[in-house]
Design brief:
The model has no long low-confidence stretch (mean pLDDT 93). Helix 2 (21-31) crosses helix 3 (34-42) and helix 6 packs across helix 12 (274-292). The chain contains twelve helices and nine strands. The longest helix has 19 residues, at 274-292. Strands 1-2-6-5-4-3-7-8-9 form a nine-stranded mixed sheet, sandwiched between helices. The N and C termini lie far apart (45 Å). The protein is an alpha/beta fold. The radius of gyration is 19 Å and the shape is globular. Helix content is 46%, strand content 12%.
């Protein structure tokens, strides 16, 4: 068996531990390669819970059979289908569970608050549709509010949409988005997660998934965001990665616009409506299409 195959199998087993990313990173820092980390876990040299260790000890071939039955792919570094963007930034996951296909076209992350206004959801849906019409993939988190509206706008326009979950890819959260989840896949989009099938949507998993949304995006648009929340976390991560951040301005006394207005104050590029957004995408598209290896229209 080749080292590459051994490494992939070790990652499959480790991935099914559903560990916090920081925990997994500490294991790699302590023990080195995936094979060495797996060996340390199996020999009881770590402080992981019995539940996590038992999950990791299930052989890789058993896990692959389970994934095939569920229609879920396992991707890791070195696989042709593993998003190259995730290898470019520190702290990104070493693997993904995936339904559908990740697009190689330029990608825009569209994010915002769950407690948004009708104005915000209308804008997010419109921007998702504009991005689809311009040939961009829309990346977001399938959450209530701005995320869901952006996905709906993209899929309604026949575009590629990529939902990054804070649960297993077979666990739709919120449940009210089951139809939207299906629409994304029916439109040849993608649903991905760093957590194995069956992983519940625990609150602590959502802030960490935001780094994946940022890393999968060539640019990021924040439609509405309060003073705190996941959208601002995603924006800060994108800025740390050197990814351009755009934001939609709003009324200065509207709670859902405090975050976006502050982003603009601190240097984010404002988006001033449908035509402005379409023009921005048309100017950026040749740059990112070239990077993605696609011919510009």
């Amino acid at each position: 068996m080749s080292n590459a195959a051994t490494t992939r199998e070790a990652l499959i087993q480790l991935a099914h531990g559903a560990m916090a990313p920081a925990t997994l990173d500490r294991l790699f820092a302590s023990y080195g390669t995936p094979d060495e980390v797996l060996s340390a876990v199996e020999r009881g040299r770590t402080r992981l819970s019995a539940r996590v260790v038992d999950a990791i000890r299930v052989p890789a071939d058993v896990r692959l059979t389970e994934l095939k039955t569920l229609g879920i792919s396992f991707l890791c570094e070195g696989d042709d289908r593993f998003p190259e963007r995730l290898t470019a930034y520190p702290g990104c996951p070493r693997f993904l569970f995936l339904r559908g296909e990740v697009s190689s076209r330029p990608a825009i992350g569209i994010v915002g608050t769950r407690t948004c206004t009708t104005y915000g959801t209308d804008l997010a849906a419109m921007y998702g549709a504009v991005a689809a019409d311009a040939g961009w993939s829309v990346v977001s988190g399938l959450a209530r509010g701005i995320d869901g509206a952006a996905h709906r706008g993209s899929t309604s326009a026949g575009g590629h949409s990529h939902a990054v979950l804070g649960s297993g890819v077979d666990v739709v959260y919120p449940r009210s988005h089951r139809g939207l989840y299906g629409s994304i896949l029916e439109a040849d989009g993608a649903v991905s997660s760093e957590y194995p099938p069956g992983t519940p949507p625990e609150a602590w998993r959502f802030p960490t998934r935001n780094r994946i949304i940022a890393a999968l995006s060539d640019v990021l648009l924040v439609v509405e965001a309060g003073l705190k929340g996941g959208a601002l976390i995603t924006a800060r991560i994108a800025l740390d990665y050197g990814i351009p951040v755009y934001a939609v301005p709003g009324d200065v006394d509207r709670a859902a616009s405090v975050g976006t207005n502050l982003l603009i104050r601190d240097g984010a590029f404002p988006i001033l409506g449908e035509d402005d957004f379409a023009e921005v995408l048309s100017l950026l598209e040749p740059l990112y299409s070239a990077r993605c290896g696609e011919a510009s229209d």
